[in-house]
């Protein structure tokens, strides 16, 4: 779907899509200055560093991974706008929408790109990974856990869009088979292996753009990897409003022997869904089931969760 076709897509979603209710309007009564304007000096490029298993390379700057300015997206959006407002960004020469409309429009684009049913009521799970992980262990990406979960997620009403970079033939074949096994509900794409050095940068650019589109279209992001930089992967998913489902980060010795230290440094309320590492597949399925309960049961609560993960001040 090209940028020129987006007016029709946005009209479809504005007339029949999911909307934030009064609870969200109360939480965000007026627009605020977007924190993305100060992301680069505050965080640098480390938030999308190599080794997350999500990115083929680190972007030139942290601010480039910003749904309000990302040129890979068909529709740009920003949390810090009142519902229904539209602003013209002269830097990218595009209109920028509030995140409810923007996420909905990008979701429709992702559904069409992956051949999924255009089901507005189904929560869309995005999964992106680099199977050629630096550790040499393809399972470190979490793709094996995701593939085991797909039948259960489909049965629970989810849709799944998967984009991986090559690195393990067995997992690649399983990803490609998703569309045939679960037509309209799950689909996967594998990046193209470059034929020579001249095509390397172009392939990486295409991979990055595809990953950004998945993040923008997804309601949830399955961050199932077991690498050391999973926290960075969660942060990028949050920025695009794809609520992360990931393994809990433990406190190790402190959790068992010095709980008062853990409580003293207790972080603010988390809007993410987490599971224990003992059995990743079982734990992740339970976390997704909890997310489905909110998605199908309380639209206003879900709107607050998405706003919470996108809000830079809460992370």
Q: Could you list some keywords that capture this structure?
A:
globular, alpha/beta, 13 helices
Q: How many beta-strand runs?
A: 9
Spatial order of the strands forming the largest sheet: 6-5-4-7-8-9
- Which residue ranges are poorly predicted, with pLDDT under 50 across at least 5 consecutive positions? 13-20, 28-61, 251-256, 260-268
Indicate the percent of residues in helices: 40-55%
Description:
- It is a single chain.
- This protein is α/β, with parallel strands linked by helices.
- It has 13 helices and nine strands.
- The protein is globular and about 45 Å long.
- It starts with 5 loop residues before the first helix and ends in a 5-residue tail after the last helix.
Short summary of the structure?
By secondary structure, this protein is an alpha/beta fold. It has helices at residues 6-16, 22-27, 39-43, 99-113, 143-155, 169-176, 178-181, 200-217, 230-239, 253-257, 259-264, 280-297, 299-310; strands at residues 76-78, 86-89, 94-98, 124-130, 159-165, 186-190, 220-223, 243-247, 273-275. Strand 4 (124-130), helix 5 and strand 5 (159-165) form a beta-alpha-beta unit.
């Amino acid at each position: 779907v090209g940028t020129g076709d987006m007016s029709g897509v946005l009209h479809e979603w504005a007339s029949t899509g999911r909307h934030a209710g009064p609870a969200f309007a109360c939480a965000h009564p007026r627009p605020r200055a977007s924190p993305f304007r100060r992301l680069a000096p505050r965080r640098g490029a480390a938030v999308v560093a190599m080794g997350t298993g999500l990115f083929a390379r680190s972007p030139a700057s942290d601010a480039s991974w910003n749904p309000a300015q990302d040129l890979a997206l068909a529709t740009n959006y920003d949390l810090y706008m009142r519902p229904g407002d539209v602003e013209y960004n002269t830097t990218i020469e595009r209109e920028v929408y509030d995140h409810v409309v923007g996420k909905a429009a990008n979701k429709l684009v992702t559904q069409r790109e992956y051949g999924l049913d255009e089901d507005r009521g189904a929560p869309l799970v995005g999964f992106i990974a680099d199977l050629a992980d630096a550790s040499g262990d393809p399972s470190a990406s979490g793709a094996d856990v995701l593939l085991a979960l797909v039948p259960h997620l489909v049965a629970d009403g989810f849709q799944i869009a998967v984009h991986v970079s090559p690195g393990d033939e067995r997992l690649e074949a399983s990803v490609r088979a998703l569309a045939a096994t679960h037509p309209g509900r799950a689909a996967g794409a594998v990046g193209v292996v470059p034929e020579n050095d001249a095509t390397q940068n172009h392939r990486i650019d295409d991979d990055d753009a595809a990953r950004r589109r998945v993040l923008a279209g997804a309601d949830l992001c399955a961050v199932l990897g077991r690498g050391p930089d999973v926290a960075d992967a969660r942060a990028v998913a949050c920025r695009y409003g794809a609520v992360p489902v990931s393994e809990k980060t433990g406190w190790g010795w402190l959790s068992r022997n010095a709980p008062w230290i853990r409580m003293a440094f207790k972080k603010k309320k988390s809007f993410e869904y987490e599971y224990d590492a003992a059995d990743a597949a079982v734990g992740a399925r339970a976390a997704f089931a909890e997310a489905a309960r909110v998605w199908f049961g309380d639209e206003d609560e879900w709107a607050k969760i998405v706003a919470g993960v996108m809000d830079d001040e809460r992370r």
